[in-house]
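Researcher: Go.
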Amino acid sequence: MDAQAFSDTLDRLGEQIEAIRHAAHKLHADVNQTYDHTHPYGFHLDMVADNVRKFGAEAVATPDDVAAVMFGAYFHDSIEDARLTYNNVLKLAQKLVGEGKAELATEIVYALTNEKGRNRAERADERYYAGIRTTPYAPMVKLADRLANTEYSCHYSNDANRAMCTVYSDEMPHFLASIAGEQVLDRRLSMPSAMLMALEKVIEGRK
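Model: Structure:
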C-alpha cells in the first residue's frame, strides 16, 4: 500500500481500531500488568501500535489486512503476559476483526509470544525467531515492539532502563538478522526501512 491509502484505511477503520485498542488495554489492566512499574500497560501497547501506524504502509499488502495488523500490534503480549491461550486470542480476533482475518491476526500474536525458558536467550531462541520470520506481518510488529522498548529504555533515566538500553543496543545486529523474513518474495514479511532507520537513530543517539 502507498502511504496515503494506508492512512485513509486507518481513518476508515477508526472505530474498529479503537475497539481493538480498548479491549487490549482492558485485558492487561485486568491482570494488573504495568509498564516499567509506572505506566498502565496500555502505554506500551499504544507505542507499538503508533509505530505501526507511522511506518506500516511499506509492509502492509492490502487494506483488508490493516485491522488484523493493528490487532496484532495491540494484542502482541496477550498470550505471554495476560494469560490468554491461542484459542482465546482467536475468539477475540473473530469478534474484533472478523472471521476472515482472525487467523492472520492471531498468528501475529502467536509468533511474537516467547518460548518457555530460564533466561532471555532461551525465551527468544531460534524457534521463536523462525516463527516471526515466516509469519506475515510478524517481523514488522516485532520491530515496532523493539523500537518502542528501545525508545523508552534509552530516553528514561532509571538504572533498569539504562541497562536495557545497553542490552537492546548490543543485541541489535543479531536481532535484526534473526527476524528478517523473505521480504523479496512477500512484502508482508518485510521490516519497513523507515522503522529500521528510526531504531538505528535511537541506538546511535545513546552513543
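Model: The chain has a mean pLDDT of 94.
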